[in-house]
Structures
1.
Amino acid sequence: FTPIYSTIKRCRSCNYQFTTEVDKCPRCGSSDVDDSKHRIESLRRLASETGLAIIGTDPDAEGEKIAWDLANLFSGLAEVKRIEFHEVTPKAINRAFSELRGIDMGLVEAQIVRRIEDRWIGFTLSQKLWKVFGNRNISAGRVQSPVLGWIIERDRKFRRKKKVAYIPDLGVTVEGVEGDEVEVEVEKMEEKLETRTPLPPYTTDELLRDANNILKIGSNVAMKLAQDLFESGLITYHRTDSTYVSKVGTSLAAEYLGEDFKERSWAMEKGAHECIRPTRPWDREMLRRMLYERVLPAENITSKHLALYDLVFRRFMASQCREFEVEVKKYKIKYNGRSVVEERVTAARGRAVELFRSVVVKDEIPEGRMLVKVKHLIVPEEYPYTQADVVKLMRERSIGRPSTYSTIIEKLFLRKYVYERRRWLFPTSLGRKVYSFLTRNYNSFISEERTRRVLEEMDKIENSQADYQEVLREIYEEIKRLA
């Protein structure tokens, strides 16, 4: 199987993008079409004039595939080298220039499979949907469809209600209480000090989750902000599932933390892949000052960028701190012949938790016998997923990748399969109908298990453990059953 390429065209009148070799826009008929062919010719001319092309696209499979495409365009015109850097700083780029390499064909082949599989499965299923629903703005995909299913299933549970009794004075939920008051006896069972290790630095999924939970911004916006921070040389590459910290990273932490520093690499080095971390020992206030004084260009950096940078900075610096101490208390609460045990952290001390609050600290529960108020609430069996929850599930169930977490969620919004209210995700009527149709007729193609297995095969291709042509043949056999 060999992919066939054509230049990308974009209609300036209606913004429609297409690849067919025509002079007019297939959608609106306008002749005002921008063809990328002239940009390709400009690059080829520059390569021919210099005799050397150094390609510095993003350090992931998609970036490697783009580098390979460019290398093919420059073939016979110039020597081609690949440069890889994970932070846009003079030191990192100078080091990368001393480590020029060839194209990693494992990454390229994995991306080829990913793109072809997306076209074959996604486009074929989408055509089925267009025919049934009469709507060409809808689509299906191997990862997109299971994620939609999670949101629909959680919505079903949200609609089922249950009664709970909540005691505000104690901050606990209990069962078997009917009245508005109940007599309780609280006994402290245990009190202890624990030493805990800080959380590791951010990976893509964790950053997207905290951006949603703490900053209240969606996955797609968070990734755009992170891209800007990376391109501005403020953080390392933001599409990663590695928590590894390089020596450069630990030296930054040592400079900032002083006596609170404790070096942790967190994971085995995996090529050049590293966690998401700041590139300088500057906290948010220092960065704001540097931008204000024009030490760094500030045109594209907004308050949202600074908020996301602050998360990255504090989480990373906390990961390099000494262990911190927490007070943990366990209580037995007796009432109406029943009892419930409640354990909670009542205090946390240390530089790590000052930088990044990784534990929830609650008030102590008053001891003794007392009459307390009870609130009877009707609550959902489960609450709807947030974008943060969906990203976490994609990582846990291995059906998403750092480069696709935000785009999958964005596509569900774009197709009007889901909507967001109070940061909760709900399925639309269209989303329910499309998912029902797909699971009834094509479940074997979009099941979570099948999706996971295909993605695992792509990972094997990246590591040169599988033949990409064999994987494509297997997928092609699937497509023939769909036709």
Note: The CA atoms of residues 53 and 383 lie 53 Å apart.
2.
Amino acid sequence: MKAKQIITAFLAVVLYVSCSDKVTLPSQPLSDYEKIYMPQAVNNPVKRILIVSDTAQTIIYGANYGGQDYPAQDIPVDFIINPALIDSFNQKNNTKYKALPSGSFSFTQTSAVIQKGKLTTEPLELKIKTGGAGAIDVLTDYLVPITMTAPKSNIKVNEDLRTTYYLIKSQPNLADYPDYSRTGWTIAGFSSEEPAEAQWGNGGQAIHALDDNTSTFWHSQWQNASPGPPHYIIVNMNETKILHGLWFIDRQNDQEGKPKEVQVQVSMDGVNWTDAGAFTLENSKATQKQFLSGFKSAKFFKVIFTSAYDAAYCHLAELGAF
């Protein structure tokens, strides 16, 4: 009983000492958490496909306020296109995006205000010419870095979200280019294929990219060997067509291995090849249509997959052209 009383007394002392200790927290002024930023920059780089038109196309941007409460005063902000950032972006990402030609764009305004008691500016617009005199080139990739400054405000700018990088490309209206019939098309070559997929009903051979069945697919070899990229498929259309672009449907029941970086070549004889374009596909199960960099007359086309999402192997459910 005495031992129990001693233990109880000891715990009481420990509890008293613990409660009497004072913990000093570092100073955390609320102003450290008040920042302004471009909300579009959260998704950098932001891709925008513009349709060729006589009417200028619009890019929307603006600024937001983030903090514990609403701003207690107006916050004026300014915006500029910052072409100096294009070179650094290209070097960092191994890309070759161009700057917008002078005269191809205009701002509706370059200054705005996050008003007292509000969290955003009004939407601002960048107008880009895609048709007529002074328009940007069709099917050309441009990088447009829009940078925000706030020289007249004491609210800090979130440096990670100061600039929104827009990837801009103009293209014709896809609705004007119907898909070609694939009747009579054959496979003229491939880097590898995997017939062992047939045991699960998946096909696995290159011809399954032309069978109108999204439940089957071509798969690069994985049995006995597993070659890495580049992977390719050659299609013989068995007649000469003007190729405007290609369409892709990825495998429907797997994420890894979907095509990412794609190069396209065309040929009249299946021997001599001409580069026709390069693009990046999304990691998606939906149909993806891509224009070639120029419209080409061809009987054969070769699709080269130089990389895939999260895998060295590659697969594709359906492949077509328009």
Note: The two ends are 92 Å apart (CA to CA).
3.
Amino acid sequence: MITIENLTKVYSRKESPAVENLSLEVKNGEILGFVGLNGAGKTTTIRISSGVTLPTKGDVYIDGKSVTEEKPETSRNLGWIPEFPNYETNAKPIPLMRYFAGYYGIQGEEAENIITRLLKEVGLWDYRDRKLRNYSQGMKKRFSLAESLIGNPGNLMFDETLNGLDPEGVQFVRELILSQKQKGKAILLSSHILTEIEAISDKVAIIHHGKLLKILTRSELKNLGLERITIEIDNIDKGAIEILEKYGEVKSTDGKVLLSTLKLSGEKYPVIVEDLVKSGYHVRRFEPFGESLEEFFFKTIGEN
């Protein structure tokens, strides 16, 4: 569980706080979408939570342990994926992952098995001999995902991980996040791609000028008028239709991987995506109609 209590960060006395009196909680098995404009304080919050930056006031607790006072313990149970992963010039994937495995006390055959499995899971096994400097930004993010999972931490923070990814990359990260949620992990997901946040988050926190403006639960999101959804998946078949019919009315177009007009409360959205993913379907699009999270977001920050 991730608990942020009364967090404040001031970089300069002449400037407004980057984060001001922020409190949040992410429970085990829960995804919290963390949204805000550039400079709103999302990255600062995540950097403090991961122990990279010290707060001016307040603290962050990982499974009840203080990040500021018990950093070695908290860092071992928190996986952090930065927006722009950066590695040493000559670093290669396997030696670097061995180093991080050692940090978690994982060595020998166990370490090699974990490294092999993770590099295969993120699609980088065939590129294991390349230097990381020669990886594309998308490949670096995939490697960062693998790196963050070496010690199987119970908590994960994604800082704009979806930014700059192609549709295949977004789909991959989405499915990885959902698989980690199913394992009972607490996940904080920062992103400006609000349709993705809306599709998989259990709660959504809106931050603006360093201040928390609103936390929306799924039961509250249903009041935004989100009654219809367009869903696009690969290889639509009878099984996919049957899954979706559990949640409402289903219509599909001729030869197109498109499902629409599902009528249900917003609290069911993550459940639908999880249901499809668990059954082996790749969700390429999940788009609610009505007042979207994006519209609500801009209305909220406009009032503040």
Note: The first helix runs from residue 42 to 49.
4.
Amino acid sequence: MIDFKRLAEQTPEDRAARDAKRERDEKDADAKRRAEWSKTTIDARLSEDVEMRSTPSGDTIASLRCIADNGDTFTAIYWLPPHRPDAAERIAATLRAGLGVCLAGYWKRRQWTDRDGNPRQVREFQAQYVAPVRDPVD
């Protein structure tokens, strides 16, 4: 049951402070969760050139098809930051097939039903950091 007396006692400043604290707590929890997710770092080699695409909302996504050191192939998805419009051009020009890359992020499983009604799933690496790795000089 709602205690209306207690609601009447709260001033607009109290409500604003409560809402600000709740927002700070949510942001802190989100930052902690993202920091934990980002603990996975993978060194891999690109098997193809980077594929750039855009979502209907205008976000730019880079798909990187990679081969891990153990021979496993996987797709890494990197959402380009919207405040860096030049990032897409730089990534497309820099990351080419055969280049080593260092990826930091987390694994994500996607599930869907295809056009024929068959259930499908894929495991992708959601990259939050992508950097080229130069081969060591012999």
Note: The first helix runs from residue 4 to 9.
